[in-house]
Amino acid sequence: MDFTLEVIPLPVTDIDRARDFYRDKVGFHVDIDQEVMPGMRIVQLTPPGSGCSVALGDAIWDMAQGQTRPEPGSYQGLQLCVADIKAAHAELTARGLEVSEPVQYAPDDGATFMYFKDPDGNGWAIQEYRRRVAEPLHKVLAELQHKG
Q1: pLDDT of 33-59, one tens digit each?
Q2: What is the pLDDT of residue 148?
Q3: Which of 9, 15, 71, 130 sits a CA distance of 20 to 30 A from 141?
Q4: Sheet with strand 53-56: strands edge to edge
């Protein structure tokens, strides 16, 4: 049985402001923006090339039994991966995103990062993983499943 991580609920104070930020500044695609049931609006956004989305909505946590709503801005360490961090930095700054300069912690592939926060303070890292140009994650995972 496959268990795929496809949606992460993200706590925000203003759904419209967060939607506009992730769409316009970070470049996520808006997959859904609608009231999915009376009183429950969901905005789901997906980073380009990703199999996992973020979901914004006030009532998301009401549906999950036993879970309390996290405070907006309390999520830290969410991570995106790119094949070329310099190109990603140029694209994001051109969109008006306040993103840190790339920091290379070691010469190895996967050791260069940059960082940004959304309007509520949720913290994101962007990791350069040059290997993804030749080996997209979905292909690597499919090959591993066939071997296992």
Answers
A1: 999 888 889 999 999 989 899 999 877
A2: 62
A3: 9
A4: 7-9, 53-56, 40-46, 29-37
Instruction: Report yes or no on whether pTM surpasses 0.85.
Output: yes
Among 61, 56, 58, which Cα is nearest to 45's? 56
CA 4 – CA 12 distance, rounded (Å): 24
Give the residues across from 32 on adjacent strands.
44
CB-based contact 76:121 (threshold 8 Å): no
CA–CA distance, 110 with 28 (Å, rounded to integer): 22
Q: How far apart are CA 126 and CA 96, in angstroms?
A: 16
The residues facing 103 across adjacent strands are 113
Query: Do the beta carbons of residue 126 and residue 88 sit within 8 Å?
Result: yes
Closest C-alpha to 5, from 65, 70, 50, 61 = 50
Three-class secondary structure of residue 137 per DSSP:
helix
Question: Is residue 16 within 8 Å of residue 61, measured between CB atoms?
Answer: no
Three-class SS of residue 14? coil
- Catalogue the E-assigned strands of 1-138: 7-9, 29-37, 40-46, 53-56, 78-82, 103-104, 112-117, 123-128
Q: Are strands 123-128 and 78-82 parallel, antiparallel or unpaired?
A: parallel
